[in-house]
């Protein structure tokens, strides 16, 4: 059911369309929408603009294959937050989940390409068509995050990483 009714979604999205009409936004995106919520928007009577993006948690332990496919079919780009897992801050993160960057598969593939597990995880997302927004304050890691375009993962490696999916959210949405 969720905390928002259909009418609230429609009113909110209509207001966003009005912002675009007024020149206050170039495009409209949503965050943490599931397929049902996206369908409500896409089936909105008089829809002027569909969302161009849906920002959701997405990484090798939470690959969201069904949502990704649905969004592809509707030309909605998935923008993946926490593409490297997250910091282990128990005040807002599920720390019972295993740390993504210690995963043996990601590290083994990284070793093959002389890359870090983080670079492999980012490359995996990019090859799937997911836009990534890794967070870092460390200048060296920020540089490393950009060094993912000089290698490609094989189909076999992509499947190995896809098989890591545990449907594990690091960022728990408490609604």
Automatic annotation (TrEMBL):
Task: Give a GO molecular function annotation for the protein.
Answer: oxidoreductase activity
**What region holds the NADP-dependent oxidoreductase domain?**
11-165
What the entry lists under Pfam families is as follows:
Aldo_ket_red
PROSITE patterns in the cross-refs: ALDOKETO_REDUCTASE_2 (PS00062), ALDOKETO_REDUCTASE_3 (PS00063)
Record's SUPFAM superfamilies?
A: NAD(P)-linked oxidoreductase
Q: Which family does it belong to?
A: Belongs to the aldo/keto reductase family.
Against PANTHER family, the record matches this protein to: ALDO/KETO REDUCTASE
The name this protein goes by in its record: NADP-dependent oxidoreductase domain-containing protein
Q: What is the lineage of its organism?
A: Eukaryota, Metazoa, Chordata, Craniata, Vertebrata
């Amino acid at each position: 059911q969720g905390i928002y009714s259909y009418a609230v979604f429609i009113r909110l999205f209509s207001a966003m369309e009005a912002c675009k009409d007024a020149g206050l936004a170039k495009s409209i995106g949503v965050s943490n929408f599931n397929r049902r919520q996206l369908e409500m928007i896409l089936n909105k009577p008089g829809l002027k603009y569909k969302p161009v993006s849906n920002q959701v948690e997405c990484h090798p332990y939470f690959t969201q294959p069904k949502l990704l496919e649905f969004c592809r079919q509707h030309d909605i780009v998935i923008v993946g937050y926490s593409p490297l897992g997250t910091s282990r801050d128990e005040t807002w993160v599920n720390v019972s989940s295993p740390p993504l960057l210690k995963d043996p598969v990601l590290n083994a593939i990284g070793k093959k390409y002389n890359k870090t597990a983080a670079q492999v995880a980012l490359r995996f997302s990019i090859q799937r068509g997911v836009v990534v927004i890794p967070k870092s304050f460390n200048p060296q890691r920020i540089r490393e995050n950009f060094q993912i375009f000089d290698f490609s993962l094989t189909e076999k490696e992509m499947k190995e990483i896809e098989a890591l999916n545990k449907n594990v959210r690091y960022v728990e949405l408490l609604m």
